[in-house]
Amino acid sequence: MPGMAIALSIVGVTFAASCVWLTVRIVNRREWWARCTLAAVVALPALYVLSVGPAFWITGHCFRGSKQAHRFFNRTYRPVASLAHLTEPTTDFFIWYLNLWGNRVN
Q1: Could you give the 3-state DSSP secondary structure of residue 1?
Q2: What would the mean pLDDT of 46-50 be, rounded to a whole number?
Q3: Ordered alpha helix ranges (H), 1-106
Q4: What is the pTM of this model?
């Protein structure tokens, strides 16, 4: 797993550097495209993480018994679940958030 930790570190540093660069472009040059890009770069990952709950509800209520739907859900949200299970408080929050959407997770 050390390779995965290195890869995540590289992605994290690259993401942070890109956000800083875009912020500098916005502050110094007041460029419109930089504002839109920064908004997308910040909003898309947040929307991905927040979409776990609705997708969990849809999979449980609309596609009951569908192995394909459950397989798709598991593949799509595996990165979020993996990161959530790294520490216990994060796991508790992740389970609490999924339970808000109606299906009970133990």
Answers
A1: coil
A2: 90
A3: 2-29, 32-50, 52-61, 67-76, 78-84, 88-100
A4: 0.69
The CA-atom distances, in angstroms, between 52 and each of 42, 59, 64, 78, 79 are 17, 10, 17, 10, 11
Contact 105, 99 (CB under 8 A): yes
Distance CA 53, CA 61 (A): 12
Length of the chain, in residues: 106
Q: At what angle do helices 52-61 and 88-100 cross, to 10 degrees?
A: 50
CA angle 2, 98, 75 (to 5 degrees): 50
Token readout for 71 is 């397989």
**What is the phi-psi region of residue 66: left when phi exceeds 0, alpha when psi lies from -120 to 50, beta otherwise?**
beta
Question: At 54, phi and psi to the nearest 5?
Answer: -60, -40
Residues 65-69 have a mean pLDDT of 83
